[in-house]
Input
Amino acid sequence: MKAVLQRVSSASVSVTSELGDEKVGEISQGYVILLGIAHDDTTGKADKMLEKIKKLRLFPDAEGKTNRSITDINGEILVISQFTLYADCRKGTRPSFTGAASPVLADELYAYFIQAALPHFAKVNSGKFGASMQVQLVNDGPFTVILDI
Output
C-alpha cells in the first residue's frame, strides 16, 4: 500500500459524468491522501497506514516546527484512489500496472480504509473509486510525503 500525503489548507474532488462535474468531497485543513493499493495488500496494511498517517507530525507548532499531527490540529482528510502509484516505468515508454491490485480488491480495501478512518479524523471525504476525477487543492508549504507500507 502506498500513499502520497499532501498537507493542504483546502481541497475538493469532483467526478465527471454526462451531466457535468459534480463535487463529491471537500475538506479544509488536513491531508489529501492519494492511496494506491497493491495485489498483496490487506486490511492489516490499511490499519498500519492509518496509524502512521494519524501519528505523523507534519503540521507546524507555535514555533513553526513540524511537530503536530493531524489529530493534534483536528485536521480533515480527502482520500483519492490512485492505482497509478504502482506504475512501473522502468522499461519502455508505457507504464505497466501489474503491481496494482485488481479493481475488485482495490475497491474493497479503498472502502475499508475510508470506513476505518472515520473515527480518527475530524472529517473524512473521498473521491469515487474508478471514476474520472478532478482534484483541486491548496498545498500548504508545500509539504508532501510518500508512505509505503
Observations:
- The chain has one domain: 2-148.
- The mean pLDDT is 96.
